[in-house]
Amino acid sequence: MDRVWLFRCVTQHSSANVVAQGWQWRVEAPDGAVSASSTSFGTLPECVADAKRHGFMGDVDPSTGTFTTTRYEMRVGDYGDIVLRPRTQPRD
Bigger pLDDT: 64 or 45? Predict the structure, then answer.
């Protein structure tokens, strides 16, 4: 079974009440191990490029994402195939 990669749009707040959108990735291994980006990226392509440096081998199509109550996200396998299974880890 492939790992499951989550690419999500996040809202960042600064101390000056400036709001910016960014992208983060997170990966869940079949054994339950989780890794995540150490920073947010200004664009989805920058985020995907960093994920590729950490083992992601696919591409992400933004049109395949879904909206949650708090953000927009895409769940894909190692090779970019869409994953529709429920999350195994609680949302943060």
Answer: 45
